[in-house]
Specification:
Helix 6 links the parallel strand 5 and strand 6. The C terminus is likely disordered. This protein has 2 domains: 48 residues, RecR Domain 1 (Helicase, Ruva Protein, domain 3, Orthogonal Bundle); 142 residues, 3-Layer(aba) Sandwich (Dna Topoisomerase Vi A Subunit, Chain: A, domain 2). The protein has a 5-stranded mixed β-sheet with strand order 4-3-5-6-7. A two-stranded antiparallel ribbon has the order 1-2. The chain is an alpha/beta fold. The protein contains 7 helices and 7 strands; from the N terminus they run αααβββαβαβαβαβ.
């Protein structure tokens, strides 16, 4: 016996989400079926609004509800320090520490040859424009401490070496293979506070 078409269609959509298999998708669908109609309407509205009400900041490329985003438009932020991160979730993790007062630039991912993500697919052209517009003095490489994060950091160090910019990276307090967005605030605070100069940047 097959599920009714409407149920199977929803299972198929949930199955397309990252790390969600068919069985998990089924649980999601039957959970939704157990909810009241009003709750389902609110859920559907929230799904629609998340796309309708968000945009991409033209300066840092973060997902926000305004352009420029609240951080880029904040006159109190130190525009001379730019923290390079993979996506908006990493920005939120760093902001949660309340210890960073610079701005950000979202690369839109990291270099991953296995998955076919090459440097030219990242927001590097926008990064160079961002550096010019803000007269940046320091760039912080804030990527996950894994192979892809290390590869991206090394590539960016070489790319930016000709610029008169201090290049630093998060201290080694984060365990190898950890995700930045899941790091606790104390560990991330110390990683920022004790960030060190990138080795290849021998001018500093």
């Amino acid at each position: 016996m097959r599920y009714p078409t409407s149920i199977q269609n929803l299972i198929n959509y949930f199955s397309k989400l990252p790390t969600v298999g068919p069985k998990t998708a089924e649980r999601y669908v039957f959970y939704l079926l157990s909810q009241h109609a009003e709750w389902l309407q609110q859920f559907a509205q929230a799904l629609a609004e998340v796309k309708e009400k968000t945009t991409v900041c033209e300066t840092c490329l973060a997902i926000a509800e305004s352009n420029p985003c609240p951080i880029c438009s904040d006159a109190k932020r130190n525009q001379s320090i730019i923290c390079l991160i993979a996506d908006t979730r990493d920005m939120l993790a760093i902001e949660a520490t309340k210890q960073y007062n610079g701005v950000y630039h979202i690369l839109g991912g990291v270099i991953n040859m296995i998955e076919g993500i090459k440097p030219e697919q990242l927001n590097l052209k926008a990064l160079l424009n961002h550096l010019k517009q803000t007269s940046a003095k320091e760039v912080i490489l804030a990527f996950n401490p894994d192979l892809e994060g290390e590869t991206t950091s090394m590539y960016l160090t070489k790319l930016l070496k000709s610029h008169k910019i201090k290049i630093t990276r998060l201290a080694k307090g984060l365990p190898m293979g950890a995700d930045l967005e899941y790091a606790d605030e104390i560990t991330l605070t110390n990683a920022l506070k004790y960030r060190n100069k990138q080795i290849l940047n021998n001018k500093y």
